[in-house]
Amino acid sequence: MLTDFGLSNMVKTSSLLKSLCSTPFYVACEVVKTSGMGTGYTKAVDCWSLGVTLFVCITGQPAFTSQHNDMEPRDQILQGNYAMRDKYWERLPQAKDMAEKLVTVDPKKRYTVDQALAHPWFTEDEEI
Q: Which pTM was predicted?
């Protein structure tokens, strides 16, 4: 289990969070969008962060970085602009699919925890 409880918060299922607290390269786009606006975001941000963490575990690099893209990381996050270099992902197509479904800009289309746990990457053996 990978966690960062330094910025955690208890939340009720129907509540929206409004504070801007996240590790910069792991923050979901809706947190960046709503920062300082008084609107909130849901726990779907945790699924985004899970996808970004998966990306780092597979490639050893953050999904959003100024090292491999001309855009600022903030803009990359807002647009979901990341590069999945084949040398890391070609042998793990199910992990790639999982990461893409977690790092989806629209939180309504983003995989939920239940969907992630039912994904073939968790439920089937993948030959490498």
A: 0.78
